Amino acid sequence: MNEMTTIARTTTLKDWETDQEVRWCPGCGDYAILKAVQRTMPEIGTAPENTVFISGIGCSSRFPYYMETYGFHTIHGRAPAFATGLKLANPNLDVWIVTGDGDGLSIGGNHTMHLIRRNLDCQIMLFNNEIYGLTKGQYSPTSRVGTTSPSTPYGSVDRPAQPAAFALGAGSRFVARGFDVSKKLPEVLKAAHAHKGAAFIEIFQNCIVYNKDVFEDFAAPKGAEDRQLWLENGEPMLYAKGTKGIALDAEALHLKTVDVVDGDWQTAGVIVHDVTNRSVAHMLVEMPFGEFPMALGVLYDDPRPTFESDVWRQNAAAREGKTADLQGLLKKGQTWTVTEGGPEL
Amino acid sequence: MATAVVDEAGKRQSPLSDAVVVRFAGDSGDGMQLTGGQFTLSSALAGNDFATFPDFPAEIRAPQGTLFGVSAFQINFGSSAIDTAGDAPDVLVAMNPAALKTNVPSLKQGGLIIADEGEFNDRNLAKAKYDANPLDDGSLAKWQLLKLNISQLTMDAVKPFGLGNKEALRCKNMWTLGLALWMFDRDRAPLVDWLNAKFAKAPDLAAANIAALNAGHAYGETAELAGPLKQHHVDPAPVAPGLYRTLTGAEGIALGLVAGAQLAKLPMFFGGYPITPASAILHHLSRLKEYDVTTFQAEDEIAAICSAIGASYGGSLGVTSSSGPGIALKGEAMGLAIMTELPLVIVNSQRGGPSTGLPTKTEQSDLYQAVYGRNGDAPMPVISARSPGDAFECAIEAVRIAVQYMTPVILLTDGYIANAAEPWAVPDLTTYEAFPVEFLTEVPEDGFKPYGRDENLKRPWVKPGTPGLLHRIGGIEKEIDTGHINYEASNHQMMTDIRKAKIDGIKVPDQIVELGAESGKLAVVGWGSTFGPIHQAVRRKRAEGADVSHIHIRHIWPLPANLGELLKSYDKVIIPEMNTGQLKTVLRDQYLVDAKPVNKVSGQPFTIAEIEAAIEEALA
Hints:
The structure holds two protein chains of two kinds.
Chain A: H1 29-44, E1 51-55, E2 70-73, H2 79-89, E3 94-100, H3 101-107, H4 109-118, E4 122-128, E5 131-132, E6 138-139, H5 163-169, E7 174-179, H6 185-194, E8 198-204, H7 216-219, H8 224-227, E9 228-231, E10 238-239, E11 244-249, E12 254-259, H9 265-268, H10 278-286, E13 294-301, H11 307-319, H12 326-330, E14 335-339, E15 342-344
Parallel strand pairs in A: 1-2, 1-3, 3-4, 4-8, 7-8, 9-13
Antiparallel strand pairs in A: 5-6, 7-13, 10-11, 11-12, 14-15
Helix pairs in contact in A: 1-6, 2-4, 3-4, 5-10
Chain B: E1 19-27, H1 32-45, E2 49-55, E3 70-78, E4 91-94, H2 97-103, E5 112-116, H3 122-127, E6 144-148, H4 150-158, H5 165-169, H6 172-183, H7 189-198, H8 203-223, E7 242-248, H9 249-263, E8 268-272, H10 279-285, E9 293-297, H11 301-313, E10 317-322, H12 324-340, E11 344-350, H13 367-372, E12 382-384, H14 388-405, E13 408-414, H15 415-419, E14 421-425, E15 472-474, H16 489-504, E16 520-527, H17 531-543, E17 548-553, E18 555-557, H18 563-568, E19 570-577, H19 582-591, E20 595-599, H20 608-619
Parallel strand pairs in B: 1-4, 4-5, 5-6, 8-9, 8-10, 10-11, 11-13, 12-13, 16-17, 16-19, 19-20
Antiparallel strand pairs in B: 1-3, 2-3, 7-14, 12-18
């Protein structure tokens, strides 16, 4: 979110679509995300000319070409650095970063970390498909152990990174999760945009060619209520139509699932979601799927001053009362004047 | 030509008509750079022309007394034009055995050694790998030796201020400076003012340092009666009247970038990452916020350039700076700036390479990297600065080309220029022609083409936030005019040709001959910081009647249009470079001239004598 949002403008989905042919594989989860974003933008109410989509390299990073906004398709992993320079140059722009698990966590992990640490005001959409799609299917830093791929014919052996945990560990003030075809994705995007600061959104995305249905265990519509925990601020952490909830095992200091009888979640000890509770957020991002449902929605949201606003404030303070007299600056320090009679101070 | 301070007979020579080279050498903790810097200022105030060469170890605090921990500062000052820091010192101040051992071989025969004998104890002698004390064993017989217990004399001088031993000994450099000021008949008052300002918060330290300075000076006065120590006066150099200051290359670059941004009427964004010897540019600029400068210390070299490109995309002048290893990391992003045709200035303060190489030593070995070092056909303008003052002009030129042609530009300087100081006539900014940038703000009559071009083949610069001009850019090959993704063979051929034609077509001034005739037997062609030694060597050889000219190239890419013809008008061309022959390769390739390399890759600048020898050989 930023000051430009005050320049509200009424737009429709069509206003956010480019004339460019979309070149993702038919059936790719990216189509659903693109539509969700294009659908969300009119609701946010910003103007396309004040919006910039910045991406790195990979399937997800083609995204800017399809948004009728300003767009910059940069180099592999570095989108956060371009965004930082752009936002420092013009803090009024509404900046969205589009990245993937390889782009944002492997080659660009360093920049993702520092962008989050500095808290640049922008939205980071990390499309996590747990695979390198554009290079034809190698395993990625988020692939599960044992993923067979062209580069790991005997299965991958390294443990996957957890994007949301990475973001929170890097100091993120906003962490959310969604998935490509989820109807709730626009709400997550809106919440991310409303957060002033670096808003990190992990979006599970189905790569139908190289990693098909890898998220089906929780994303499939059938049985979704048992496997998805949609977090709502101020609401108890309930799932399975209110028959189960998340509680704290106070002795072991970890989360546990509990049964809720007759809707009495209080007795069952179900936690009420407080988006500003960082300790609980740490547990939610680490909550293992299987034993637990997949935590989705806004896991954490607690803004603090943003990098570009602090930089601009400091610049303004440093400029206060000074004139930009460059000729004077050139003469600064110890100088001497040479006259016909020789030098003098 | 530099003259020995003391003649063979020990008679006073006054006034010294020409130039003197003094080298201060000590442990890296002895404050030699500070001493040298202040002596430089005093030379400036005495009206001498000068050039300096700071030479310090890569280690911040190398173990005390070791050979690799020696830090030295050389200054060449004189009453006529000074182009280099001097070949061989006339005076060597050695604060410990290690400093003596590493520096005395370059001292001119008959030159003066001033050694702090208080530091020549068994421990320090062992660290410097001396079997016997050189101050006593006669091994320094071809020089004049003045042994002084500077440590003790300093301790005595600062005794009234109750400093601890360690703090008291820190004043040694001021004692030494005081002696040097006396030797060259310099005024102490500016140094006293400087010490009072520097230690404003610790008046005791100020007083102690001033006392040490005065004591060193007084020692010179009283000791003059006997021994090799003599006072000499070097006349002011005939320089044009005007306002002068000392300028290092890093200052020249920083101020030139600010001036360039102002002439372009743009805010400046500087993305940097700490690296020796380029960091000083970041330090200078981070204090200049009131000049519409934003500095950003990025997480790495790649983020530094990418943030600068992001800022340029947003309508600022993006600038980044580094040294060889960091420039290597920036290569991919440079390609993106070429592809997206955004203005950007990339400063490379070259140092010894490859890899980490010699971080604090100077070299010119990144010319290939600058001209050729990117994937794909990725042409980019390259400019090189010859001196600190020239760095100011080159930075403005780099900004001008970047914004007038929408292209990244590389500005080459080196560790020698970055750290060295020279007197600089403060320019009058009103004499510089402004080149204000005009952003495209509305749809032109014939429609908006993000990759449409003007007569310079420059594409329009549109700031995000501008209504009606929404478009997307990126690193994938662009379609002519529209900038859409386009993989077609013919389009790629045309776009590659256009990118090349745009850079080839950059208007750069014709090459001039610095010294000598526009044709003849021999041209000595240089670039960058070799200017000084080449210029002096050619001047001396011409004075002896040799048919030799000096050509110094600022615009490495594109090269000046007349350069090929000019080079062909000489019988022979030699190219001294602090690398294994990189400009030589470029010129041979471009003009089929039989240019011969003269190379030095020792981390040290050329001496004048080395260039003279190369000229003699070429003319033989």
